[in-house]
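Re: beginner question about structure tokens

> Can someone show what the tokenized structure looks like for a real chain? I only ever see the sequence side.

Sure, here's an example I had lying around. Input first:
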Amino acid sequence: MTQRVVLASSNKGKVREFSGLLSDRDMTVVPQSDFAVPDADETGFTFVENAILKARNAAAHTDLPAIADDSGLEVDFLNGAPGIYSARYAGEGGSAANNAKLLQALSGVEEQQRGARFQCLLVYLRHADDPTPIICQGTWEGRILTSLRGQEGFGYDPLFFVQEEGCSAAELPAERKNELSHRGRALRCLLAALSKI
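And the corresponding structure tokens:
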């Protein structure tokens, strides 16, 4: 029997990514927006704290198991910024404003100092009061380009250069991105953990 799991996000890009990654499992991912779940207040100081807050909120409002992630971009030259503030790095302006602010912050910075990584902390709760959430982490190393490249993906993907592929994350086909991405790595870790319980 297929299990429904609520994804503690209304981000269409994330919903697509999770649905694709879980398509061959007995899990149907339903976005929290289908239940009119209000967004959780992300008051944590770390990716894992925020992921737990989001998962508990979604599970409490839906009575379903919940998956939540908190993901972000860490740039070496910026001492790990934008980090947990990645989605709202430039305020409410969305991806275009965030990318513009990042390019401005790294203006004139040499290529070897533009190292960066995407982090994904993924949490699975069986129910809202689950005292032992499953927590998985995925990391994707790269560097920040000096201009946008590619039309796929979302967020910082057009600026994130993937060395082993020789292109930006936004130039990768979705299937290949899912294999390499921080979210894909964290989700494979989660699926392995779920298979043991």
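Each token stands for a local structural state, so reading them left to right follows the chain. Residues 78 and 105 are 8 Å apart (CA to CA).
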